[in-house]
């Protein structure tokens, strides 16, 4: 599901409207420490997918968002917001129940399945088999949505996981390694001290064997607005950024 | 007779005979190596042509998977693999293990509820699959899956029950 996120990071300009990009995209794991903008990026991905004229976006999170992340005004249209369906499973058991029964729901199949805060569902049940089953069920649910949507209209999957501040214990490392096997594409959000001027995050997208790593700088303004700039240090693939914002250097 | 080696494009995809629209199998380290997929598709081609599976393929299978290969072939011989599907199109495999316990294998990605999968595949990473998952792939190849249709609600119960049988 790297393509949706790539379009978000390229401000919607990377691959046009993205008619044929959703199929066969590997599921993506969005990784970062507390407050690294994972929710904002997930929400931006939801808005992006909601504007594609396909099925709704299913956004799973343990609790309602505190505020709608701000982005460019055009993207936050009510018609897009209406296509994002939030559900708030309060426990791991409820999340599993939701995924196990996803095929009972009627109506158009979602075009994108998002889960924020996977770590909150893993702390209750830290065994590796439980984590694997949760990851596998997320994949299975997205595959079922793809199947329902029909050929060429796959359902993407992006899951956000909060990483430990300082290394974490071996159990966490093991769990992360396990999840990475189910999510071949990953995007890391890390603070970057060398960023120009203000507090800047480095977003590194590893698309899971479908292309080279790409990087962006992500900055949150005091008013919550997210600005994204192509990371200046990358070499060789500047062509993929030709549509990026002009005057992006802060 | 290898002209149709693409018959099974991936052991993680459903066999065409019982497939609906193509399902996107996830790619990544949790899928089988290309050499194994090739082996399975050659076996599928042999089965499709009505020929017995060549001994060399069975030997390769044993070389790659060790004792799991023999156990998985035993499971296939005993018709222990059942493909359960509901009207929604969602599917899941159940494998009746040699111990008499039933294990759940997801149809869309690598997952089996047995302890060997948790330990050898997930934790230690020294096995590609457990014998149940291998039996699922082999029964797809040999077209010996039992088929069972259940209601959407029953499929939910099967998927949910997997969780509790661990306790």
TrEMBL record, chain A:
SUPFAM superfamilies: P-loop containing nucleoside triphosphate hydrolases (SSF52540)
Gene Ontology annotations for the cellular component aspect, listed alphabetically: Shu complex
An annotated Gene Ontology molecular function: single-stranded DNA binding
GO biological process per UniProt: double-strand break repair via homologous recombination
Listed InterPro entries: P-loop_NTPase
Region (Disordered): 222-250
Protein's name in the database: ATPase SWSAP1
From TrEMBL, chain B:
All residue ranges annotated as the SWIM-type domain in the record: 103-141
GO biological process: double-strand break repair via homologous recombination
Tree of life domain: Eukaryota
Keyword flag Ligase: no
Presence of keyword Zinc: yes
Signal peptide from the UniProt entry: none
Pfam family, one: SWIM
GO CC terms in record: Shu complex
GO MF annotation, one: zinc ion binding
Region ranges (Disordered): 1-24
InterPro entries documented for this protein: Znf_SWIM (IPR007527)
Keywords from the named record: Metal-binding, Zinc, Zinc-finger
Protein name (database record): Zinc finger SWIM domain-containing protein 7
């Amino acid at each position: 599901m790297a393509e949706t996120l790539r379009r978000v990071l390229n401000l919607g300009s990377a691959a046009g409207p993205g008619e044929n990009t959703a199929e066969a995209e590997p599921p993506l794991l969005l990784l970062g420490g507390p407050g690294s903008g994972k929710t904002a990026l997930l929400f931006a991905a939801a808005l992006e997918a909601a504007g594609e004229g396909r099925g709704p976006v299913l956004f799973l999170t343990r609790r309602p968002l505190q505020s709608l992340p701000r982005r460019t005004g055009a993207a936050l249209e009510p018609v897009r917001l209406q296509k994002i369906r939030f559900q708030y499973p309060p426990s791991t058991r409820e999340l599993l129940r939701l995924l196990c029964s996803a095929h009972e729901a009627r109506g158009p199949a979602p075009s994108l399945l998002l889960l924020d805060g996977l770590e909150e569902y893993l702390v209750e049940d830290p065994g590796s088999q439980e984590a694997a089953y949760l990851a596998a069920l997320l994949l299975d649910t997205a595959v079922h949505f793809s199947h329902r949507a029909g050929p060429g209209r796959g359902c993407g999957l992006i899951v956000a996981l909060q990483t430990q501040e300082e290394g974490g214990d071996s159990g966490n490392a093991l769990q992360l390694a396990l999840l990475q096997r189910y999510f071949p594409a990953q995007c890391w959000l890390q603070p970057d001290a060398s960023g120009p001027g203000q507090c800047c995050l480095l977003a590194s997208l590893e698309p899971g064997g479908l292309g080279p790593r790409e990087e962006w700088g992500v900055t949150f303004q005091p008013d919550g607005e997210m600005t994204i700039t192509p990371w200046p240090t990358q070499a060789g693939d500047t062509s993929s950024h030709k549509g990026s914002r002009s005057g992006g250097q802060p | 007779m290898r002209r149709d080696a693409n018959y099974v494009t991936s052991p993680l995809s459903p066999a065409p005979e019982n497939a609906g629209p193509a399902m996107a199998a996830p790619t990544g380290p949790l899928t089988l190596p290309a050499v194994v997929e090739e082996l399975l598709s050659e076996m599928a081609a042999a089965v499709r042509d009505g020929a017995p599976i060549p001994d060399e393929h069975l030997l390769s299978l044993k070389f790659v998977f060790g004792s799991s290969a023999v156990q998985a072939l035993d499971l296939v011989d005993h018709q222990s693999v059942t493909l359960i599907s509901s009207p929604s199109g969602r599917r899941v495999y159940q494998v009746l293990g040699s111990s008499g316990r039933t294990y759940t294998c997801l149809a869309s990605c690598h997952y089996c509820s047995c302890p060997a999968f948790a330990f050898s595949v997930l934790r230690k990473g020294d096995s590609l699959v457990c014998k149940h998952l291998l039996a699922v792939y082999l029964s797809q190849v040999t077209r010996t899956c039992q088929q069972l249709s259940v209601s959407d609600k029953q499929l939910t119960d099967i998927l949910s029950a997997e969780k509790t049988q661990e306790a």
